[in-house]
TrEMBL record:
Residues 395-414 are annotated as: Disordered. CDD domains: MFS_MosC_like. It comes from the Bacteria. Residues 396-406 have a biased composition (Basic and acidic residues). It comes from Streptomyces thinghirensis. PANTHER family: BYPASS OF STOP CODON PROTEIN 6, INNER MEMBRANE PROTEIN YBJJ. This is MFS transporter. Keywords: Membrane, Transmembrane, Transmembrane helix. It is a multi-pass membrane protein. The chain crosses the membrane at residues 12-30, 42-62, 97-119, 131-154, 160-183, 203-222, 275-298, 304-327, 339-359, 365-385. It is found in: Cell membrane. Residues 8-393 form the Major facilitator superfamily (MFS) profile domain. Pfam families: MFS_1 (PF07690).
């Protein structure tokens, strides 16, 4: 293992962490943003839906750009744009400013999410062992910190720009400095492609091949958005908790997500990705079942805890599987990046579908019954678990092995 890879791993983990902070600071202060700009309840869903839609556009564009531009460069410049757009959301005073800031935030987040996971997948391949869950654990840690900072800002009645400015002032220069050590995948900067394959655009992996992973990604984010958007209301309105206690389930979910991702790579190395994905899907489905049948708030809290432990492994492993599948089927440089960018769009599809789906079912049927729908969808992941299995490579093994060509060169020329 080289120092280049180690520095690349640490710097990318910080990138995930910074993105977790930024996203949490935005979504946890939505009521304050609505009050600042006078956004009506009817107009708010339009603004909220626009962000993931534009993020999907940003991810698609990134998938095309990486044919000519290294993912590390896209990540280097998209992360500061995300942070500055966040500051723009907090500093504006007109609805047009909010619309522009959120549009920039959404497009940049799409590029950021796609390029971050591209680098994560390529680093995991270079390491020859599972490290992808660790990056997403850093994201979860950032989300917890961001939510805590948002709580502090609301508690002390700070204006949005006062809450955001210190965070942006620290994270932007730190992210730019850390970006010097990003490590690109094989085939960049004149390096040979995977297993010495020639360079090329690497777009030979069709949508049909990726479809099972796209469905898993969508179902996972339907489950995640259900927790983030409905856990507080469910605990208070259905399970009869106090307003203060209703704020706890999402925090419990985030903490158990962090714990699960922190140890998840060890599970993948020990038991394999297929077993971990199956186990995560079953645990998550069990969490939804506990939430749906909970007699009171504390049992419901247990259900949300199980959801964090189960859902946390699905998204990182789906990205890793897409990159591995693309590399196995198309050795050209960029095949893995194109697959990750395409898969990343379904992150936003699940986010868009999840909350309205549960809300509509809750109003038309019951919120207990509505929780069974994401339960079934997440459980379907078990059917697609074989898509996460590494195919035997040309050396006859079933696991990836480190390759010198996979190290690539860092964005600073290392």
């Amino acid at each position: 293992m080289t120092d280049v890879l180690r520095r690349g791993r640490v710097s990318l983990a910080f990138g995930f962490f910074a993105q977790g902070v930024a996203f949490a600071l935005l979504v946890t202060r939505i009521p304050a943003i609505q009050d600042r700009y006078g956004v009506s309840d009817a107009l708010l869903p339009v603004f909220l839906a626009a962000v993931p839609i534009l993020a999907g556009v940003g991810s698609v564009v990134t998938g095309r750009l990486v044919r000519r531009v290294r993912p590390s460069r896209l990540l280097r410049w998209s992360q500061p744009v995300v942070l500055l757009a966040l500051l723009g959301v907090g500093a504006g005073d007109r609805l047009a400013v909010l619309a522009v800031a959120l549009a920039v935030f959404g497009l940049a987040v799409g590029a950021l999410d796609a390029s971050m996971n591209m680098l994560g997948v390529s680093l995991q391949r270079s390491y020859g062992r599972s490290i992808m869950l660790g990056f997403h654990a850093a994201y979860s840690l950032g989300g917890i910190l961001g939510a805590s900072l948002a709580w502090a800002g609301a508690h002390w009645d700070l204006t949005l720009w006062v809450s955001y400015l210190p965070v942006v002032a620290v994270l932007v220069p730190a992210a730019l400095v850390g970006s010097r050590w990003y490590v690109d995948g094989p085939g960049r900067d004149g390096e040979p492609g995977v297993e010495g394959a020639p360079k090329g655009e690497g777009v030979g992996v069709g949508f049909k091949v990726l479809l099972p992973l796209c469905l898993v990604m969508t179902f996972a984010y339907i489950g995640d958005s259900t927790v983030s958007n409905w856990s507080a209301k469910y605990l208070q309105d259905v399970l009869g908790s106090s307003e203060q206690l209703a704020t706890v389930p999402y925090n419990v979910y985030m903490v158990t997500t962090l714990v699960g991702r922190a140890v998840g790579d060890f599970g993948v190395r020990r038991f394999g990705a297929v077993a971990v994905v199956r186990g995560g899907a079953v645990v998550a489905a069990g969490g939804f079942a506990v939430v749906a049948g909970a007699p009171g708030a504390w049992v419901g809290m247990l259900g949300f805890m199980l959801l964090g432990l189960g859902l946390c492994v699905l998204v990182p492993q789906t990205f890793a599987a897409a990159g591995r599948l693309a590399a196995e089927r198309d050795g050209r440089a960029g095949a893995s990046d194109a697959a990750v960018a395409r898969l990343n769009v379904f992150n936003y599809v699940g986010f868009l579908v999840g909350s309205p789906l549960v809300g509509a079912l809750g109003d038309a049927w019951s919120y207990r019954g509505a929780m069974l729908v994401p339960m079934v969808l997440v459980l379907v992941t078990v059917v697609y678990a074989r898509s996460f299995e590494a195919q035997p490579d040309r050396y006859g093994g079933g696991h990836e092995r480190p390759r010198t060509a996979d190290v690539g060169r860092g964005s600073n020329g290392l």
